[in-house]
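Morning!

This is the sequence you dropped in the shared folder:
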Amino acid sequence: MKITQNSTDTTLTLILDGELDASSSVLLDNELSKPEILRNQKILVDCRQLNYISSAGLGVFISHLQTFQDANVKLVFFNMQEKVHNVFEILGLDSLMTIVPSSAEAEAA
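The structure's back. Tokens below.
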């Protein structure tokens, strides 16, 4: 798993590349746990190159949801491959998290 970051004044985009499993979820958790992340108004997660997500990877996002909501930070996923999106749907996470098809929609969300 490779995580690339792009940031503007108010938005942080995380580009996930590879498989988000138990071992790589620690890397993601470390990124999302940094105090400066809460200075953003939005965290956009580009899932175009995310090939797989395990329950551990999902758990990282779920564990940070309340913190982001409390800080008024919007978490938005976009460019999600169908097989990854299906995992979110099956677990009902698509109703808890914002998932949109494109980067333009993510920025507008």
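Headline: DSSP finds four helices and five strands in the chain.

More detail when I'm at my desk.
O.
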